[in-house]
Amino acid sequence: MTIERRSLTLFESLFYMRQVGPVVASLTLEGQVDAAALDRAVRLLQRDYPLLRCSFRRTDDDVALVLADEVPGLTVVPAGWNLLTNELNVPLDQDRRLSRISLSQAAGSAVLTLANDHAGSDARLNTLLLHRLLEYYTDLLRGIEPPPTGRSAFEGSLEEALLAAYEPGPVQPPPDTDPPMTLAGAATAPGPLGVRSLSYEQDTTAALIAASRRGGVSLTNLLTGAMACAVRAQFPDAGPLPVSAAVVVDLRPRVNPPIAPDALFCCAARLVCATHVDAADKPVEVGRRIGTQLKAALEQEEIQHRLVAQRGVGKPTPLPPISFMVSNIGIVEDYPVPDGLRIIDSRFATTSRGPVPTLFGSTANGRLTLDLVYDTAFHRADVIDEVVKHFEASLLGSEH
C-alpha cells in the first residue's frame, strides 16, 4: 500500500513555520537543451523521487507532506532571467507545492534550476537530484529509458535516524557570549532578496585551496574568516569586536549508520561559532579560531544531541544570535552531460529572510562560486556592496 501522507517532524516544521522557502540548486550550461526531452527527464525524476511530487497541507492538527499522482513538469521561463535570484524570490505555490524545476535558454547557453522547499530538502540533495536529472536526460537522448527505481514515497526523517543512534538528553542552553556585531538595520517594508555573486577561475580557486591548507584551515573556515573580517570592517570602533557565524553542516555522514546521500529529507543544520575580530586580523587567523570551535562541536556531536533534545521537549532549542551564516557544500562531482553541452558553473542558495546574510559556496569543475544572499528589508545595498568588496579583498589577499 502506498502511503500518501506524512506529518512533518518538529525539525521540518521549523522550516515551514518560519517560511524559510526553497533551497535552489542552479547549473549554467554552454550549449542548447532539448526542452521536450528535458521535460520527459523531469517526469521520470518525479516518478523515481516522490518527494518532488509532494505538497504541504496544513490542518488544525498538523502540517503534512501529501503525495500527488501528478505535478507540473518542466517550467520554461524567458531568456535572460536571473534564475537563481528569481527562484529565491518566487514562492513555490500558494498551496505550498514542494518542488519546481525550471529552464531558461538563450542562444548558446542555458540555466537549469531545481527549487525544493527547505523543509524537505537541502543543497546537497538538490545538487544530487540535478545530477540524476542530467543522467536521465543524457540517457533519453541516447534512446535509453531509465527503469523505475520503486522508491518509497516517504523514507523517514532526520529525527528518526538520530533517535535510532542517540539517547534523548537535557536541552542545553546556548553559551553566554557578547552580543555580536550585525549588519542589519531596522526592518523596513518587505522587499525582495538580494544576491551578490562571485566566481573564481580554476587557478584562483586552486590558490585559495592551497592557502587554506598552508594556514591549517578548511576552505569553509577561510571563507568564514573572510566574512568575519568583512563584517568587522564595517565598524570603526577600536579593538577586537564580537562576531559570530553559523556554519551549516551536512549530517548525512555524521550519523551511525550514515544516511544515504539521496535520502529524501533535509539533513542540514547549523553550528554557531563566536570570536572577537580585530581590524588587523587576517581571514586565516579568524578561520583557524572558528575552525577550532567547529571541530570541537563536531567531535562532541553537538548538533545531533541538540536535535534529539528538542524532539524530546517538543520545541526548538535556542541558538545564540549570529552576525552571518556560511554554507559551503565543497566539491560537486562532475555532472554527466551529452555531447554539445558543457557545465559552466554550479551554484546554490536558500531563501534567507530576516537580518542574517548568508554566504553560499560550491566548487565545480575546479571553479569556486559564491553567492551572498540578503534581505533588502534589513540590509542596504551599499552596505552589502562594501561587505562584498572587503570580503573579496581579504579572501584574495590570503593567497599570498
Q: Percent of residues in helical segments?
A: 25-40%
- Spatial order of the strands forming the largest sheet: 8-14-13-11-9-10
What portion of the residues fall into strands of 2 or more residues? 25-35%
The CATH topology of the largest domain is Chloramphenicol Acetyltransferase
Number of helices: 10
Can you identify the CATH superfamily of the largest domain?
Nonribosomal peptide synthetase, condensation domain
Radius of gyration: 21 Å
- What is the number of beta strands? 14
Number of domains: 2
Describe this structure in words.
This protein has helices spanning 10-17, 35-48, 83-89, 123-141, 158-165, 202-214, 219-232, 283-299, 302-313, 381-397, and strands at residues 5-7, 22-30, 54-58, 63-67, 74-77, 99-106, 109-117, 193-200, 241-250, 268-277, 324-331, 342-350, 358-364, 367-375. The chain has 400 residues and is α+β, with helices and mostly antiparallel strands. It has two domains: 5-158, Chloramphenicol acetyltransferase-like domain (Chloramphenicol Acetyltransferase, 2-Layer Sandwich); 175-332 and 352-397, Chloramphenicol Acetyltransferase (2-Layer Sandwich). Strands 8-14-13-11-9-10 form a six-stranded mixed beta sheet, with helices on both faces. A hairpin with a 2-residue loop joins strand 13 and strand 14 (367-375).
